[in-house]
Amino acid sequence: MQNKDIKTLIQLLSRLPGLGPRSGRRAALHLIKNKDQFLNPLRETLGIVGDSVRQCAFCGNLDTTEKCYICLDDKRDHSCVCVVAEVEDLWAMERAQVFSGTYHVLGGTLSAIDGIGPDKLAIQHLINHIKTGTIKEIIIALSATLEGQTTAHYLVDRIQDFDVQVTRIAHGMPVGGELDYLDEGTISAALKARTPL
Amino acid sequence: MQNKDIKTLIQLLSRLPGLGPRSGRRAALHLIKNKDQFLNPLRETLGIVGDSVRQCAFCGNLDTTEKCYICLDDKRDHSCVCVVAEVEDLWAMERAQVFSGTYHVLGGTLSAIDGIGPDKLAIQHLINHIKTGTIKEIIIALSATLEGQTTAHYLVDRIQDFDVQVTRIAHGMPVGGELDYLDEGTISAALKARTPL
User: Fold this and answer.
1) I need a surface site. Which of A22, B37, B38, B175 has the fewest CB within 10 A?
2) Is pTM, for the whole model, over 0.95?
3) What contacts B19, CB < 8 A, 6 or more positions away?
4) Which residue intervals of A78-164 are DSSP H helices?
5) B84 contacts B141 by C-beta, under 8 angstroms
């Protein structure tokens, strides 16, 4: 029906997370109708990002340099490493602007169903990092899902032989959350982890 | 916080219709993590589309050729022209696969609020096309909104001096629609346009 290049563009856009065939068509038309403001800048940026962005050899974050801007930052505490599953989790932590240590991106979580074992994640890389003796604390910031917690326990097992403190970010009621809307699992976790007031 | 090129990519993606900051971030990561399957094909396709797709000089549809695939198709009825507001409307008509004539894309609808007068739409172009004497019927397929109907009436005014039949697609109950859920305007239109059974 349509021109084949436009069709390809729509198909590619439709496969972006959050978009479907309808929004893919809208996005494609938006790009075509705004070539100078939109299509060309996007094409250029994709070129730059595609050619130069890579994983930081040290922590797994994305940057154009071999060591990322966080690993290169002397003001950050390199003895405190926050372990996250994916780069988006690292970004989420950074948006909160409350963590001044460095990161380690695992590249996923253990999942028997999806066939993701320890060898598919950057776990040995983390152990090697611990062996250098520069890390004092490892903060595990994995999702509070079955896979996240399985991975957390596996990590604790692997790390326990080293002289490193391992902590986990707290589970409980989200700030701004209402008790009435909380699921049983969260209420149970929040109750168990209650703190003196 | 992030690398500036990744930031630019996120910003550009966030501005696509249907996406916001959160889905823009997800889309950017999806692209970066799947360079070969996704980022590079998208970049290439944007290049091709950006360089070669343009409006058909005849009807306003988008294609890489000067005359689009519809205008070039001898099997289509060139004496019956369907007037639509935007290219997306033309695509919607084509998806229905029930129209075998050709199109004329106005490029919008008249809107006093947005300052869109007849000179900003491809109306004179349509009149010139009518003057060639090849058109027998003009089907107006504009949205059933205030702007769409204002534009339809304006077109009828402009076309009435020519020997061309002007029709409008029917307004009524959408197929699959339930009477109970219809707004008063649609019920009124459907009742007025009732047909013998």
Assistant:
1) B175
2) no
3) A16, A18, A19, A23, A27, B13, B27
4) 87-96, 123-131, 146-159
5) yes
Which among B26, B40, B45 is the nearest to A5, CB-wise? B45
- Helix (DSSP H) and strand (DSSP E) numbers for chain A: 7, 6
Span B6-19, pLDDT tens digits: 999 999 999 999 89
Q: Which residues of A touch B72 (CB under 8 A)?
A: none
Of B2, B18, B53, the CB nearest to A19: B18
Distance (Å) of CA B195 to CA A161, B99, B144, B170: 84, 22, 20, 11
What's at B142, amino acid-wise? L
Does residue A2 surpass a pLDDT of 80?
no
Q: pLDDT for A35-48, tens place per residue?
A: 999 999 999 999 99
Closest chain A residue to the Cα of B4, Cα to Cα: A63
Least Cα distance to A150 among A182, A179, A117 occurs for A117
